[in-house]
Write a structure and sequence with these properties.
- The protein is α+β, with helices and mostly antiparallel strands and about 625 residues long.
- The chain has three domains: about 180 residues, Galactose-binding domain-like (Jelly Rolls, Sandwich), CATH 2.60.120; about 230 residues, FAD/NAD(P)-binding domain; about 90 residues, no CATH class.
- Helix content is about 20%, strand content about 25%.
- The strands form ten sheets. It has a six-stranded antiparallel beta sheet, with helices on one face. It has a five-stranded parallel beta sheet with strand order 17-16-15-21-33. It has a four-stranded antiparallel beta sheet with strand order 6-11-8-9, with no helix packed on it.
- A hairpin with a 2-residue loop joins strand 2 and strand 3.
- Helix 3 runs parallel beside helix 12, helix 12 packs across helix 14 and helix 13 crosses helix 14.
- The protein is globular, with a radius of gyration of 25 Å.
- It starts with 18 loop residues before the first strand and ends in a 7-residue tail after the last helix.
- The N terminus is likely disordered.
């Protein structure tokens, strides 16, 4: 869409835009004579207060946003100083939603106010609409010059604000979404059509979980100039303090016993889920990445666009999730370690979602016919003993529990999972929010109604993840698609690289909770064990995007095989392998497939040597 196509039909008062200008980080202005429209991006506020930046759904709803994640207690105001170019009356629009509306329940737990110079506008926001939209805030009168805009949370229950518009044009309403809204944002913020270059790189790794971080560190140690792009403020993905899943799977296995050395440097050694934040060693993995001379780390940056030259990726664009600025990354080689396969998807890589059928693959653990079910995602939580702990509010808008269905525990574990029959890309916000409803209302029942509620009287809900931990979404296809038969038979591949040890751990809805609620938020699993088996290198690159390597849960496997390859110490070894492959590709000037065809001995030698610090 051209920059100003969004103006068509937007209201006569803004059709003749004459000037746009950036006021500051995440602030922009459009002028037409004496008519003014100002855009404020909430995630770019200088002071987030107690609000959190949530970027998980920006591919679907268009932007990161601020989330008032206070566990039932209002969070501190987010504030931003702005400059109004003229005084007078402004119409106010706030992009938000009532996040429980999809379930047709009473109430609006995510309510908040907008304040200008300490005075709230009349409207309470977050009270309407099951989709992201611009809620009308009425009008506010302001003086010319500096003013402070604030978001005031009223509940602590995950109110959300994407952006705010002040306009003197009473006929203007911001575009609802999609390309028109994106064009409006870009115009108002004055973003260039071509983002500035981030620099020269040999290898760009997108996704900073254990797999992506291992890939970037190994590539750097082998002399490959590397960029690592991660859309959160921490590395580690599911193994970080934001999600708190322990890293599983064996490392340093025959025949490449050095594979896993880097994983041991960066993965948290603590065994347990939903524990205290410090046990997940965020600083250790950040320190390891920052110590590399050939590695540039880009945190809080999400890749939002891919450019191609034939069957090759030529560049990706990263957007900063706080500042709304963009950078363009060019390189001859890329890696998709995003989990969701986002880079591959945008590049047109072939992929699958859901379960293959036994009639297709011959896998005994597959359903008879293919379907769209995936493993779910988890929102973990815990509580702490706190004498005189405060009461917890009732949650009539949540999942409704009784003595039979309440989850009677002090913390969650891996079983707290949902989304099996939902699309884990397009419906991901719904899935995360369903789990939040379940967490809050289960805790409210234990504190307020359970027949043994005194057991929870001195406990306080002290952490609930808002970044959900996914297990499955897209699987990008390579020259080999690993399946259950390969695993059961420990098939010997000439390009065997990572030796995997975890059982085929497949999750499905727990029958009790599926029956009680229709949509289960508790998982059951099948987990048969098997002998260690090799993953072939040909699973670690795209079969139709010529310069795209893969590591993590988006590699080329069937749904059944994903049940075993997806654990983080295993995915981390995949990252080590593609970091080594990047060295071979860079030195020989060949694509990833060329490593298998003509340089496999070089890759094997690197896998024998390893890239751990003891080898440096």
């Amino acid at each position: 869409m051209k920059r100003r196509d969004f103006l068509k039909g937007a209201g006569a008062g803004i059709l003749g835009v004459m000037a746009a200008g950036r006021l500051g980080r995440g602030q922009g202005i459009l002028k037409d004579g004496d008519r003014v429209t100002m855009l404020l991006e909430a995630e770019a506020f200088a002071n987030h207060g107690g609000w959190k930046v949530d970027q998980q759904f920006m591919d679907q709803m268009g932007s990161p946003f601020l989330l008032a994640h206070g566990l039932g207690r209002p969070v501190e105001d987010a504030t931003q100083e702005v400059r109004f170019p003229r005084g007078g009356e402004y119409r106010v629009w706030v992009r938000t939603r009532n996040w429980v509306a999809p379930w047709n329940v009473d109430g609006a737990p995510g309510k908040f106010r907008l304040l200008v110079n300490g005075r709230p506008v009349d409207t309470v926001f977050g009270t309407e609409g099951d989709e992201w939209h611009w809620q009308d805030g009425g009008t506010v009168r302001v003086d010319k010059g500096r003013a402070t805009v604030a978001l005031r949370d009223l509940t602590g229950f995950d109110g959300r604000c994407d952006a705010i518009v002040f306009t003197t044009d009473k006929g203007f309403r911001p575009p609802h979404g999609g390309p028109r809204l994106d064009a409006f944002r870009r115009e108002a913020l004055g973003l260039p059509d071509t983002p500035p270059s981030a620099g020269d790189y040999d290898f760009v790794v997108v996704g900073g979980g254990i797999a992506g971080t291992a890939a970037a560190i190994v590539a750097s140690r082998l002399g490959v100039k590397t960029a690592l792009i991660q859309d959160r403020p921490v590395l580690g993905g599911n193994n970080s303090s934001e999600i708190r899943v322990h890293a599983l799977g064996g490392v340093n296995k025959h025949p490449y016993k050095a594979l896993g050395d880097v994983v041991k440097e960066i993965a948290a050694t603590h065994c347990g889920n939903a524990e205290e934040a410090e046990k997940y060693h965020d600083e250790r993995i950040l320190k390891a990445a920052r110590a590399e001379d050939n590695l540039d780390l880009y945190l809080n940056m999400r890749v939002v666009d891919v450019e191609k030259d034939g069957n090759r990726i030529s560049a990706v664009t990263g957007k900063h999730t706080h500042k709304n600025t963009e950078k363009r990354f060019e390189a001859p080689l890329f890696a998709d370690c995003t989990g969701d396969g986002n880079v591959g998807y945008m590049a047109g890589a072939e992929y699958r979602m859901g379960r293959e059928g036994e009639n297709q693959t011959g896998e005994s653990m597959a359903p008879e016919k293919p379907d769209e079910m995936t493993m779910g995602c988890s929102v973990l939580w815990n509580s702490r003993k706190e004498p005189g702990a405060p009461d917890f509010p009732d949650c009539p808008w949540g999942v409704q529990f009784d003595e039979n269905t309440a989850w009677k525990t002090f913390k969650a574990d891996w079983k707290w999972e949902a989304g099996y029959w939902r699309n884990m890309i397009t419906e991901f916000e719904y899935v995360r929010d369903y789990l939040l409803r379940a967490v809050y209302s289960n805790w409210a029942f234990l504190k307020n109604e359970h027949e043994n509620k005194q057991k929870w009287a001195d406990r306080e809900l002290n952490w609930v993840a808002y970044v959900a931990g996914k297990r499955e979404s897209r699987r990008l296809l390579g020259d080999v698609i690993l399946d259950q038969l390969d695993i059961d038979n420990a098939k010997k591949y000439p390009d065997a690289c990572v030796t995997a040890t975890w059982g085929i751990d497949l999750h499905h809805p727990h029958p009790k909770y599926k029956k009680a609620f229709g949509e289960s938020f508790i998982a059951a699993n099948r987990h048969p064990h098997h002998k260690p088996y090799p993953i072939p290198y040909r699973c670690l690159y795209s079969r139709n995007v010529d310069n795209l390597l893969l590591a993590g849960r988006d590699i080329s496997v069937t749904h059944v095989a994903l049940g075993t390859v997806r654990v983080m110490r295993t995915t981390g070894m995949m990252g080590e392998v593609i970091g080594m492959a990047s060295r071979v590709c860079t030195q020989a000037g060949i694509p990833p497939r060329g490593v298998y065809k003509s340089r496999l001995d070089q890759l094997k030698e690197l896998m024998k040597e390893g890239a751990g610090l003891k080898n440096g």
